[in-house]
């Protein structure tokens, strides 16, 4: 089979309140907002995310210092999103340098932080990892591997 050239563009989470979501993604994790916009009434997001097309949508694209446009948030304004079903089917995984301060800031913001776990990579490195649920129940796993 002749495989296409694939480039990962971004992950996207659906959220109910963009400003509240930015507390985690911008203020705690340090991503920057590259742009925001209101989605048009015929946005493809309605179809692919299964959103009622009468709901107003917003959209934000986030980046990091080294990765532009790596994350997006699709906001269903004034939505009361149901809790994600279990088992969870998706997560983003982020390396952070300041893992203790990120965990503390998440706890201070009232986010659910799972217990710390030992991370063991396939090449023998070790580190620490935590799972965090954002305000809408989307799973974010953060990790840090100390320099050898």
The best one-word shape is: globular
Helix/strand order, N-terminal first: EHEHEEEHEEEE
CATH topology: 2,3-Dihydroxybiphenyl 1,2-Dioxygenase, domain 1
Helical content band: 10-25%
Unreliable residue stretches: none
Secondary structure: number of strands? 9
* β-sheet strand percentage: 25-35%
Structural class: alpha+beta
Main beta-sheet annotation: 5 strands, mixed
CATH superfamily: 2,3-Dihydroxybiphenyl 1,2-Dioxygenase, domain 1
Q: What is the first-to-last residue Cα distance?
A: 41 Å
Helix count equals 3
Please give the CATH architecture.
Answer: Roll
How many structural domains can be distinguished in the coordinates? 1
Mean pLDDT: 95
**Which radius of gyration do the C-alpha atoms yield?**
17 Å
CATH structural class: Alpha Beta
């Amino acid at each position: 089979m002749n495989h296409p050239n694939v480039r990962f563009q971004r992950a996207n989470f659906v959220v109910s309140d963009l400003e509240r979501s930015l507390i985690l993604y911008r203020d705690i994790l340090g991503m920057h907002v590259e742009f925001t916009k209101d989605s048009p009434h015929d946005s493809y997001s309605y179809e692919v995310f299964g959103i009622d097309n009468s709901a107003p949508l917003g959209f934000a694209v986030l980046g990091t210092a080294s990765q532009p446009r790596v994350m997006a948030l699709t906001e269903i304004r004034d939505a009361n999103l149901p809790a994600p079903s279990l088992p969870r089917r998706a997560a983003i995984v982020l390396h952070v340098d300041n893992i203790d301060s990120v965990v503390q800031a998440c706890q201070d913001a009232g986010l659910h932080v799972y217990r710390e776990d030992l991370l063991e990579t396939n090449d023998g490195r070790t580190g620490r990892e935590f799972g965090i649920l954002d305000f809408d129940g989307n799973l974010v796993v953060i990790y840090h591997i100390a320099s050898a």
